[in-house]
C-alpha cells in the first residue's frame, strides 16, 4: 500500500510538472541575471479600479486587433498570457538568427503585454484592458540596466527594424514603452513608415530624472514624432507621477505609479514609469479599433483624446495632455448600445358598442333639448308681443290706422319780446 501511495504522489507531481513546464524559456545564454518572477497578487489593482475596462467588454474586448509590443520580449509562460493564440511568435532582433520574440529576461515587455491583453483569472484581481487582442512580441532589448545599474541605451537601428517589422506584420497598434532625448533619423523614418501603414503608434513620454517642475520641457522621442500618441503617467491620487516628463508631446495620461503588472514565468509586481502608462492607452486603442474598424489610426487617436476624463492640469496641459484615458467612453460614445426593438404588430381594438350607443343617445338628447329651448324662447317672445299689442288693439277696436303726419318744416318757438335798458 505504501509503494502504491508513493507512486501515486510521484504521478501527481509529474503531471503537475508537465502542466507547468515552460514552453517559451529563453535560449541558453540569452539572459544574464534574469528576473526570477513574482508572486500572485489577488487584490484588484487601483489602475483597474480607476479605468474599469470590464464595463466596456460587452461591446469590445479587442478581438481581431494585433498589438505589437516592441520591448524586451514577452514571456508566454505566464498563466494570464499562455492561452493559445494570445501571444504570437513575433521576432527577436537582439540575438542572431531572427528567432521568435516570445520570451523575456527582465519582465518589462511581459508587464506591458499583460496590461494590454492579460486574461482574467479566477481569484486574481489583475487583468488586461483588451483580453481578446493578440500580442505581437518584438524583442529589441534584453536588459533594462547594466551590471552597474545604469540604464542601457537601445540601438536605434534595432529599434527601427522592430518598428518596421511590426508594421509589415499588420499590427494596428504599436506600443513603444521607451523614450530618449535624441532624435535619430532612422527611428523617425521607421515611425513615419508605421504611421503610413495605418498603425497607431503609442509611446511613453519618458521618466526624466530631473522632471520635477511642470514648467520645464525635456525632449522625448519617439513620443514627439508626428503621428505618435504620447502618454504621461499619473499616480493613485490623479497627480502627475514624479518624473513623468512634461511637454507638448504629452497627448494623454494613464496610471503609471505603483501599477501591477505580470512578471516573467508567473506572478505579479508593482512597477513605476510611463512605460506602464502607455500600454493602458494601447489596450484602449485595441478596444476602439475592434469596435470601430473603419476608423483610421489618426481618427482612433482623436477619439481617445476627445473622450479622455478630466485631469488636474485641465485641457491640453503639457503635463496631462487631454486628460486620463477612458476606455468606456472611447468605445461607447456614439455607439448604439442596444439593438432596435421590434415594433409589435398593429391589432385594431374592437369597437366599444356601448360607448357608441351612449354617445349617440347623448347627441340625440342634446338636439332635442336645443330645439325645446328654442321653442320655449319663441313662446315667451309671442306672449310678450300679445301682452303689448292686445290693449292697443282694443282701444282702436282693432281698426287699422295711420300714424300722425310729421310736419314738413319744424315749428320754431319764438322767444317773447324782451325790453332791455340802454
UniProtKB/TrEMBL annotation:
GO terms for biological process: proteolysis. Pfam families: Peptidase_S8. The keyword Protease applies. The active site is at 71 (charge relay system), 108 (charge relay system), 275 (charge relay system). It is a single-pass membrane protein. It comes from Actinocrispum wychmicini. GO terms for molecular function: serine-type endopeptidase activity. Residues 62-323 form the Peptidase S8/S53 domain. Residues 1-24 form the signal peptide. This is Type VII secretion-associated serine protease mycosin. GO terms for cellular component: plasma membrane. Belongs to the peptidase S8 family. The keyword Methyltransferase does not apply.
